[in-house]
Amino acid sequence: MHVLITGAAGFLGQRLIAALLDRGRLDGQALTRLTLIDPAAPALESLSNDAIDVECRDLDIAEPGALNASLGERPDVIFHLAAVVSAEAEADLDLGMTVNFDATRALLEGCRRYALSATRLVMTSSVAVYGGELPEVLDDMTALTPQSSYGTQKAMCELLISDYSRRGLIDGRVLRLPTIMIRPGRPNAAASSFASSILREPLGGETAICPVSTELEMFVMSPGKVVAALIHGAEVSGDDFGASRSVMLPGLTVSVAEMLEALRRHGGEQALARVEHHHNKDIETIVASWPARFRTDKAKRLGFAGDDDFREIVESHLRERAASM
Amino acid sequence: MHVLITGAAGFLGQRLIAALLDRGRLDGQALTRLTLIDPAAPALESLSNDAIDVECRDLDIAEPGALNASLGERPDVIFHLAAVVSAEAEADLDLGMTVNFDATRALLEGCRRYALSATRLVMTSSVAVYGGELPEVLDDMTALTPQSSYGTQKAMCELLISDYSRRGLIDGRVLRLPTIMIRPGRPNAAASSFASSILREPLGGETAICPVSTELEMFVMSPGKVVAALIHGAEVSGDDFGASRSVMLPGLTVSVAEMLEALRRHGGEQALARVEHHHNKDIETIVASWPARFRTDKAKRLGFAGDDDFREIVESHLRERAASM
């Protein structure tokens, strides 16, 4: 089993690599080869599995033909994680179109060229494909009306992957990810950054800023469950997806107040006091535009699993933090 | 007011030209210039309006930069009708992607390049953007899960036009057309071609083939109402479209059995007997994947109007036929 990963050095890519090397198997077969595509090198020092041949390739998928040689080696599974994030895609339309859309199309064309009709392609999409005036609770048949260029580009890729799959040119699957909580590391420019920050920093003894009202709800999933969903996405039967190869993953609906209550439960009043409330209208507007309530019937039918409750999300973060110390 | 039309020599293009020359005005302003883009020359002999400067350009919009000179002349309204039809796009993925998607993207990029942010771009889309397992009655928030490459390409253009409009690069509007009945002329490569054919040919004394079961329902609109909708699409305010610049036009739900009953009513048993039933699984599959029942609230809110009943559709065809004899 030969697995290729684009965006391998990213947050999800690195975790997926670790999980794959740890399992050593995918879809009932031994994993023998891992091709990692990223202009940055994934951190692999601590990872080892002698049975698996791991190769990193310093490639920019936006360069024409960048993936051809790798696709010519006929990978069995492709995890296509490389993307320009939402704020970048909004700031630079051309960059977003080139990386998020054109590179995905080139990947599909490469699969077609090398007749990789049985290759399973797993791409990550996002709640950002939704937007505008939405129903109170979304479901698998809610229209995609993205209000960002990032969401537009992802939605276009979703359509293309479904069509190439329908035509038998590829065996595609697209997972729409909830907001990932709790990300490790530091706050970043993402509008959703505060959500991880208001737990992570106070639990680590630092202050954090909450820029939104506490009634605001988000649809979230832990990094561990997202990686498990990526792996499941490669193992589930493509035919079971039905008319569209896209699926919204089963996130958890949680309000900022509930996040802060979990912080108090795990870190005490002391931790809660480290959260400073400075309202930021721009961030509130963006985050409030993301849907928070979903009926994810298709994901459940396909066997994708989410987190049971927010406490589990916090506890898995604390376990990881302890393990990395 | 300078209007540019792509696909000007096509069925809808020709009718739109005639309607515009006849009106002489668009959106309350005098029409002064009409630029007609098509590799084929539109038939203009019978049309004349001295106040309007009409120029035909023999251009293939799929050629890189083909539209640049025309866009540099800063048209106020663009009707983008050029497309490869569904059966062609299904038979030739590359052709469909090039003409239906890439050329539309190049048009949007051309508008961006010449800063045509106030130019109203009206594109035609189709019920083919819908497909798969659909609710009994669709509405404006039903997800697009096209089951053809044509529908996929149109859905991708819709997303792009909404995003370019949201970014203020263009003032776009996309009209999802029901199946147009009754088209004049001869059967063509469109999967829906039979629907016009089973009325048109028998009423003209010729035989026609019905390749689908008579229980099949379609969502249809007369050529006259479609042309009126195109003009209204250029006149309505883009801001009123809301989160998406696409709208499903208010078609009429009619079964093939009802079409044949109308044929019998207008042409007698003799006409009905000219319809030969030869089932074609491929055509049935494509056409059956198109939804036939819609709640078109958005179109009605925006002031788009459909046909009152199927008899009106047949009678308008017979009037046109008589007028052209």
From TrEMBL, chains A, B:
<keyword id="KW-0119">Carbohydrate metabolism</keyword>
<dbReference type="InterPro" id="IPR036291">
    <property type="entry name" value="NAD(P)-bd_dom_sf"/>
</dbReference>
<feature type="domain" description="NAD-dependent epimerase/dehydratase">
    <location>
        <begin position="3"/>
        <end position="201"/>
    </location>
</feature>
<dbReference type="InterPro" id="IPR050005">
    <property type="entry name" value="DenD"/>
</dbReference>
<keyword id="KW-0521">NADP</keyword>
<dbReference type="GO" id="GO:0016491">
    <property type="term" value="F:oxidoreductase activity"/>
</dbReference>
<dbReference type="Pfam" id="PF01370">
    <property type="entry name" value="Epimerase"/>
</dbReference>
<protein>
    <submittedName>
        <fullName>NAD-dependent epimerase/dehydratase</fullName>
    </submittedName>
</protein>
<dbReference type="InterPro" id="IPR001509">
    <property type="entry name" value="Epimerase_deHydtase"/>
</dbReference>
